[in-house]
Amino acid sequence: MSEIRFTPERLSSFHATVEKYEMRNSALLPTLYLAQEQWGYLSAPVMDYVAKLLDIPPRDVYEAVSFYILFRRKDMGKWCLQVCNNITCNMMGSEKLIGIVREELGIGPVEVTENKIFSLMLVQCLGSCGTAPVVEVNDTYVENLTPESFRELIRGLRSGNTKLTLPEVSV
Fold first, then answer.
1. Residue 29 is part of a domain; what is its CATH number?
2. pLDDT by residue (tens digit) across 13-68?
3. CB-based burial label for 159 (10 Å; 0-12, 13-18, 19+)
4. For the segment 66-88, what is each residue's pLDDT rounded down to a tens digit?
């Protein structure tokens, strides 16, 4: 494996981020986000690299990554479908959305398709109860989903449409 290093652009962003904080370790979360943008997920070598950059104990980095659901510790593919399965989304149909992922992609929770394009994660409360059910696709919320619109979204992503907007669905 090659040496873990930020690209020059991300290293520049890292330095600009650190300058915003009085204490260097306060830049931990934005630095982890930069790392995840570059590598797709936060492996042990990447987390160790972040700890070294911030001059903090690796344990602090590992704790933050394990606490926040926005950080991924393994390769979750190109499109990580994070289905909110809290009470409101569940009552509004998130279980049907999970079923559609099984039908369309053949995967269940915490699984990745063989081609590493899609993964499914069940998450608790994305804070969008008024627009339930909601799915976070990578870092973008897709709200007010119906089984039909979610199926079309998956099919669109599969065919290369990277716009995360809901297709028109007649009701």
1. 1.10.10
2. 999 999 999 999 999 999 999 999 999 899 999 999 999 999 999 999 999 999 98
3. exposed
4. 998 789 898 888 999 999 999 99
Mean pLDDT across 89-93: 94
pTM of the full structure: 0.74
Buried-exposed string 19-30: b where 16+ CB fall within 10 A, e elsewhere: eeeeeeeebbeb
Return the biggest CA–CA distance within the chain. 55
Number of H helices, E strands in the chain: 7, 5
Q: In what order do the strands lie in the sheet with 135-137?
A: 111-112, 118-123, 79-84, 135-137, 140-142
User: What is the spatial distance between Cα 31 and Cα 15, in angstroms, rounded to a whole number?
Assistant: 10
Same domain, 55 and 122: no
Q: How far apart are CA 80 and CA 66, in angstroms?
A: 17
Rounded (to 5) percent helix, strand, coil in the chain: 45, 10, 40
Shared-domain flag, residues 63 and 83:
no
Note whether 144 and 157 are within 8 A (CB).
Answer: no
55/108 same-domain check: no
What pLDDT is recorded for position 166? Answer: 52
38 with 92, same domain: the answer is: no
